[in-house]
Structures are given as structure tokens and as C-alpha cells.
Specification:
This protein is an alpha/beta fold. Helix content is 23%, strand content 40%. This is YaeQ family protein.
Length: 181
């Protein structure tokens, strides 16, 4: 019998001093049966880093031709495509052709570094691609914050990210491997 997705209710308050964006998002996040708490929390932090009134979680892992998060214009064009993990060069090429801006968040320590070493030269032509990595230490700590009902506060200043749930605080330092033009 197939397992169903676990539903997480998230109240995400974002204070992004770098972009001057301040808002609270009430999210219902479906966690795919194969998804880890680490990936779930990376997805939520990625949402906070790109927060916008039109940003949405997608079907994610259950759909191959959609990113994890996207932002569409009022006329339906893809403004922002956000993917997690270690996508293939082909998938990044296709994504860059579909959206104005593509952001990839690799994580997983040495595995992510090896992926980037292999793929970085073939991505230099994608001017609308940004690749921002999270350290294994940071994502492991984020996973410990996961619960079915969360009130997260995410503060972003000078590229540093502070994620707090109740009395627990995790500091995340995103590392930009490639910036969009």
C-alpha cells in the first residue's frame, strides 16, 4: 500500500533585511514519504530566502517537471524556479529556459561538492542561474527543528540566516557557488 504525504502546517515569518521583505506566510507543506526532515526544512528555508507574495510550494518530489518552489507572474509566466538537491545539467538547462531566474540549493556535504565540481563548467552559460549551497552541519541542525506544526521566524541579514522555532535557534550560512547575472 502506498504511503500518503505527511501534512505540515507552517507559520513562516520572514524578516529579510537584505531585500527589505517582511511578511508572514501560512503554509501547508506536504512531506513526500521519501522526503527527509532535512530536505523539508531546506525547502522551507529556500522559501524564506526567495519569499514573495506570489511564491508557492509545488508538488515537488511527486512531479518531475516542476520545481520544489516557484513564483509565477500574474499572466502565468515563470518568474522564479527553485530546485533543491543535485539536479542534472539537463534539468538545469531546461529550467533556465522556462524561468526568468533559477535558484538551485544543493546540500549534502561532500556529495554536493562533488556534484558541483562535475557540473559547474557546463552551467557558466546560464546567466539566470544561481547556485547556493547549505553545509551538512547547517542542514542537520535544521532537521532537528521539524515538527508537524511549526511557527518559524527566519531573519536574513548580510546573507546570514537565523531560523528560530520557540527557544531553538539555528544559524545557516548559505554559500553562493554561482550568482545570476
Amino acid at each position: 500500500m502506498a504511503q500518503n504525504a505527511a501534512i505540515y502546517k507552517v507559520e513562516l515569518s520572514v524578516s529579510d533585511m537584505d531585500r527589505h521583505y517582511y511578511d508572514t506566510h501560512k503554509l501547508t507543506v506536504a512531506k513526500h514519504p521519501s522526503e527527509t526532515d532535512e530536505r523539508l526544512m531546506v525547502r522551507i528555508v529556500a522559501f524564506a530566502l526567495n519569499a514573495h507574495e506570489h511564491l508557492e510550494m509545488t508538488k515537488g518530489l511527486s512531479t518531475d517537471d516542476e520545481p520544489d518552489i516557484w513564483q509565477k507572474s500574474l499572466s502565468g509566466e515563470l518568474d522564479v524556479w527553485v530546485a533543491l538537491g543535485l539536479p542534472s545539467e539537463k534539468l538545469m538547462r531546461q529550467s533556465c529556459g522556462k524561468a526568468d531566474k533559477v535558484v538551485v540549493y544543493p546540500y549534502g556535504g561532500r556529495t554536493a561538492e562533488m556534484w558541483w565540481d562535475k557540473i559547474k563548467n557546463s552551467t557558466s552559460r546560464f546567466e539566470n542561474l544561481q547556485v547556493t549551497s547549505f553545509s551538512e552541519k547547517d542542514t542537520t541542525e535544521l532537521a532537528k527543528l521539524a515538527s508537524r506544526t511549526m511557527k518559524l521566524q527566519v531573519n536574513i541579514q548580510d546573507g546570514e540566516v537565523m531560523v528560530s522555532v520557540g527557544d531553538s535557534i539555528v544559524y545557516v550560512t548559505p554559500l553562493k557557488w554561482k550568482t545570476a547575472a
